[in-house]
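Usage example:
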Amino acid sequence: EVQLLESGGGLVQPGGSLRLSCAASGFTFSSSAMSWVRQAPGKGLEWVSGISAGGGDTPYADSVKGRFTISRDNSKSTLYLQMNSLRAEDTAVYYCAKKVSGAAPFDYWGQGTLVTVSS
Amino acid sequence: EIVMTQSPATLSVSPGERATLSCRASQSVSSNLAWYQQKPGQGPRLLIYGASSRATGIPARFSGSGSGTEFTLTISSLQSEDFAVYYCQQYQNWPPSTFGQGTKVEIK
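Running the assembly step on the lines above writes:
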């Protein structure tokens, strides 16, 4: 059974940093492209960043470029999102999502972790 | 960036009735279109990919159609567990992968 378990969310002040993790199991993590997708309270889904299976390709949404860094550790089957210079508008539930390749749908999602940016 | 527009925003349907949801892309995405279901407090679940192929374990009452810029998700006979929010997503031009704003299917 595919499982994606996010952690690391919480309350942080504007300008602060946070690192999210996503522990994967039930599939060959090292062969799967992964992404982070967020959902602001009461709003729709927004793709944040993705990473290829080998980690060499890491696109970002314009809204987070230069502030967020996606990475992965295939030996630990774990995906990360380092978030710096956080803003109030980054407040959202952050989901990790799996896909087979770059141009493909997200076939599995985690339950999400809530990030709240507030003073 | 391709903009995805869903309609209606809210659809009120009685159990057992048919629901038809629409999704329009600002430019052609061929058949690179997916539909997701999201229930409160849960991550989205993939229903349809390639515009019309059901994902693993998805009941046959869910069907997708369309290509290019116009797409439809049909739920043939709504069950209680189908009341949720539905999102379309294009993955033709990636990154970024873009989602519609969602259609909430509620009990009439």
